[in-house]
Amino acid sequence: MPQTPLQLHADSAPALQPTTRIAEVMNAIRARIAARSLTPGEKLPSIRSLAASMRLSTSTVVEAYERLSAEGVIRSRPGSGFFVAGTLAPLSMAEIGPRLDRAVDPFWVSRQSLEADDATLKPGCGWLPPDWLPQEALRRSLRTLARAGEAALTDYGSPLGLPALRQLLARRMAERGVEAGADQIVLTESGTQAIDLVCRFLIEPGDAVLVDDPCYFNFLALLRAHRARIIAVPHTPTGPDVERFAAALAEHSPRLYITNAAIHNPTGATLSPVTAHRVLKLADEARLTIVEDEVFADFETAAAPRLAAFDGLQRVVQVGSFSKTLSAAARVGYVAVRRDWVEGLVDLKIATSLGSGQVSSGLVLNVLRDGSYRKHVEGLQVRLARAMIEVGSRLEEVGIRPWLQPQAGLFLWCRLPEGVDAAALSRAALARDIVLAPGNVFSPSQSADGFMRFNVAQSQDDRLFDFLRHALGGRGGRRR
Question: Which architecture does CATH list for 10-95?
Fold first, then answer.
């Protein structure tokens, strides 16, 4: 597979380790093995290519490889190169990416956002402020649940999930052109758990999985936890780069492609019908399964093409949740699949979480049945459209420019002024109690260090723009 260049950063070396050039190469290789981006039996970058990417002499890389071979970390095959040796050590999530005190990575962003107090600004997070969500509708639903029978409040639910909610979800999916019976829908605790179940069902360690570059950073963390080989395909304003997509299929024979339906995270791009048809044709020829995450679907003002609608849930799996528009505290997601896969997914769900949370499912069902939810969503769409224009304009005033103008949604994927490193800017922001989302946490190829994702609903505080104006120091004002 094409190798992502190993980058050297002063803050990426483990504490108390040697800092010689040879040690830096060894530490970089060990880090990639620990992160599952290099798996047992996989070929390492050639000596010349690694030396060029790390700006070192070939003799330094040769010595590092020889020492790693002596330790049993890698092995040499004469005439073929060097390969990762041995079996995988037990998974340590701390080793998937740099530790919190060393670098800005997906876990760093998530933890800072989730653990922040009310005084911290969170323009880098992926959810709406609490006062944008239908709190009164949630309270009404909770009061209704409090009057429910004992079983609804105390028992395990069916592994498939609450029947009434699955039936309602089938009707909602039909409105977007996806024909799925209630018996094809399995409720989960979240959209993430839905993807996790699909990965458990369909892939083995070492299997290749395609993702967009950039993509939602938790896709990367989840795939690394499953020990998959992550293959990145550049994303364009109309979907994945089809030529690169085809090349990746031919070279890597991936089992899955995981992407966003409707509104892409982080770019805000929308899949075009032409790209959708070309991707599906390629997937069918390669026997590729596509996981389509439509967690942002209710933010759409005009329905984008759905791969699941074109495909009829044959090669496409659709997942979603209500954490973005309703409540992140009500942990309810779902997965819709072909009928002959349902039993296998249910078995895995029983093995990993037993039944479904009846209280959370009942809470979501009551709110969705309430006519106020549709009005709430329509109001969100209008409010987000206004915020998109306002925040985009204010960002341009400090030299930060959107990659594209999204049709809808939460996010602006923005290019920083020339020479500004997004990770360094994020560290400086954190010191001012501002959590940002730098581009490389979304990029498998680490090629987005000049980009930043902004959540427009969380980016309306003057303190954010005061910080950006000061930190950027007039590097790039509005272009005329």
Answer: Orthogonal Bundle (1.10)
